[in-house]
Amino acid sequence: MLYNLSEYLTQFHSGFNVFQYLTMRSILGVLTALAISLIVGPSLIRYLESYNIGQRVRDDGPESHFSKAGTPTMGGALILVAIVVSTILWSDLSSRFVWVVLFVTVGFGAIGWIDDYKKIVYGNARGLSARTKFFWQSVVGLSAALVLFYTAQYPIETQLIVPFIKDILLDLGWMYVVLAYFVIVGSSNAVNLTDGLDGLAILPTVLVGGALGVFAYLTGNVNFSSYLGIPYVPGVGEIVVFCGAIVGAGLGFLWFNTYPAQIFMGDVGALALGAALGTIAVIVRQELVLFIMGGIFVVETVSVVLQVASFKLTGRRIFRMAPLHHHYELKGWPEPRIIVRFWIITVVLVLIGLSSLKIR
User: Fold this and answer.
1) CA 223 to CA 131: how far, in whole Å?
2) pTM of the model
3) Where are the domains of the chain?
4) Closest-CA residue to 38 (of 277, 260, 263)
5) Do the bridges between strand 159-161 and strand 169-171 make them parallel or antiparallel, or are there none, so unpaired?
6) Distance of CA 110 to CAs 45, 245, 281, Å?
């Protein structure tokens, strides 16, 4: 919105031309989303507290979580508002990529909001049934995958890039839709499973979102992509503004969500942010790199799958409790230790993912 306005105003004063630069708009996207989160956050917390919109704690979870019952939840709505407003203000709204990622983020956020609402209003800690949640996730995820497939203008948009290996591009054809669907839906649920401790999911989301922003900027710039030897995908650079909004909104939310948390994001935030990361990775053609950088999300998800499979097949559990962070809680690790160590691991994995830009 302001991008288009500044484009018009440049005819009256050349100084407005600064807002045409993608880097400037990305920085403003970060700062705008951060400001919205920090300014609105305290009021939102007070509002949620006044209406008793608090966390429902499962009775089969770790005992240390019982004290968190009643902590305001659904704070992910704050993250989504900050992201959407910042993106609309500073991005080029003629970009189809921007609208696709906004559609997915809002769509998965709506699913999470209904899930959280059922938990709070009906006192059901499990919210929506797994089948219902998965159905609507599939509707939104598949819709986005089909739109990206049918609107693709260049072959690279539907090819698979293998990290660390130069000039290997796999034509996916219709398998692109399948891959995109699983990346979007899988990433959404992976982040949601990780969101079990104060600040555990939000900072890795910020780190991965910021790194994907680097990929988007370089992949969408013909000069940088040529220098680095990575495929050039026209138009994806505009996604950097959205990635910046994730960083700003996430850091602002972490201000209130850090241990001990004043507010939780709930499914409205976790499902939306995970789906957003998956969609960005699909758009910038870095699905495999997302798998690396989001290793914490992957491990948390795998721990649940292994736990369920082992119990059904053998009647025994591999971990004391799944997802994995609960296993370490029951081993006696203090919550801050688990959180910070998972953050450190994410930093390392993000650096490995970024190294794929040069190591080819």
Assistant:
1) 46
2) 0.94
3) 2-355
4) 263
5) antiparallel
6) 20, 19, 21
